[in-house]
Amino acid sequence: MPSLIRSFPHHSHGSAPGTIVDVDPSKLKSARSSNRNSADYSIRSFRSHKSSHRSSQDSLGPPQPGSLNIQIESPPIVCYGAPNDSAGALLSGMLWLTVDLWEAEFDSLKLTFQSVTSTKKPVVVGCPDCTSKTTDLQSWDFLTSPYPFSHGMHNYPFSYLVPGNLPASTNSQVATIKYQLLARATTSAGETLQFTQEVKVSRSLLDRTDRNSLRVFPPTNLAATLTLPPVIHRGGTFPVEMRLEGVVTRPNMTRWRLRKATWRLEERSRMVSVSCKHHGHKLGGEGKGVQYEDTKVLAQEELKSGWKTDYSSADGKIEFEFHPGIPAYVTSTDDVDNGAGLSVSHSLVLELIVAEEYCPRNSKMVTPTGSARVLRMQFNMPTSARSGMGISWEDECPPRYDDVPVSPPTYQTLVADVDSQSISSSDSI
């Protein structure tokens, strides 16, 4: 029989203060046992987690003597101008060696600036020598003999003039080019510390005057004149002006009407995958390679209106302006030609569909003749990074102000004869 337990006055959700509640002792025992079981389970899980954490720490081995880090202090690496005319860019920074132990002796500390060229279609898949090629451009040896380092942080400055003829960092459809700083330290006990940081190298072609291009389409009298920018940039649009002349033929009383215009921007990548010395027999000898090409459409658009037609002039003309561009969300790269088999170029392809019409003189009747032509044009569009201020490192100079002279002021030296009596009298005063 359930017992009656009188509770003290308190506020609860299910009953009013000071009420009498019926409690079953068997339920109290089951609740206590469930709480005890849950507590035992939590203790066991904590002990198992602690033991597993201790075993994972033991499996890591002894602690490392320290770590390496690289801090780049120079602005982004941008080579202005063509590869033959560029003066390069400055790369400077600080190499940090952090020693965690009270004292550690290092035998060597070296920093290397490398260029890594990798192909996405190697001769033998899985062979590192066929896939990538690493070239050391500059190295710094900070230690020539074993030296003990105390606990703390130790820094080593470095600087390098990146040559202007280096290709920019590239990630195309067939190959990649990247630059990196590789720091490596070796202790007297044989332990090795290593740190790698990627460095992006860009190229910017300075804007010049617009270029004009002429295309003719025999046997017709049609001629297209286009005004194109010298350089285009990713993530933006550029204007293109087109004028199509010779659309009217007076003796035959025919004219051409523009029906549709289509443009697209293409990226063409070309790479020669060279075999290593171990797999040269697959291509007939060491040093031979296989050429791969890939064409990717970056953007395209189809237009059916937006041009101005003038048939009143002698030969007639059609004027048209459009704004193509490479969207920012499309993966693309700048123009590259490293001279070792990798090249990336961009082109603008323009297609015009014109239809011939018969238009008698002094008549408003226009009859299509059924003849149509596709006028296809292709233009090379150099693509590079934006120039920004466009100032190379050799053209930079410190600021000058009008009120501040170029050099500190000079002082004149005055030599005069002084009477000794006057000096003694002044001392007495």
Question: Which key terms come to mind for this protein?
Answer:
3 helices; LDB19_N; 7-stranded antiparallel sheet; disordered N terminus; Immunoglobulin-like; 429 residues; flat; Arrestin-like_C; LDB19 N-terminal domain-containing protein; 3 domains
The oligomeric status of these chains comes to single chain
State mean pLDDT (0 to 100 scale): 81
Domains counted in the coordinates: how many?
3
Biggest sheet: strands, sense, closure? 7 strands, antiparallel
Q: What's the end-to-end separation, in Å?
A: 120 Å
The low-confidence runs, each spanning 5 or more residues with pLDDT under 50, are 1-23, 50-59
Q: Would you identify the CATH architecture of the largest domain?
A: Sandwich
What is the radius of gyration computed over CA atoms, rounded to a whole number of angstroms?
A: 39 Å
Strand residue content: over 45%
Structural class: mainly beta
Q: What top-tier CATH class of the largest domain fits best?
A: Mainly Beta
Number of strands: 24
Describe this entry's structure for a reader.
The chain has 429 residues and is mainly β. The protein has 3 domains: 3-59; 66-204, Immunoglobulin-like (Sandwich), CATH 2.60.40.640; 211-380, Immunoglobulin-like (Sandwich), CATH 2.60.40. Helices cover 11% and strands 48% of the residues. It is built from 3 helices and 24 strands. The chain has helices at 25-59, 128-131, 420-428, and strands at 3-6, 20-23, 66-72, 77-80, 89-119, 132-141, 147-162, 170-171, 175-187, 192-199, 201-204, 211-217, 222-228, 236-237, 240-245, 248-249, 254-274, 289-303, 308-310, 317-322, 325-326, 336-337, 343-358, 367-380. Strands 3, 5, 6, 7, 8, 9 and 10 form a 7-stranded antiparallel sheet that branches. A hairpin with a 6-residue loop joins strand 19 and strand 20. The longest helix has 35 residues, at 25-59. The radius of gyration is 39 Å and the shape is flat.
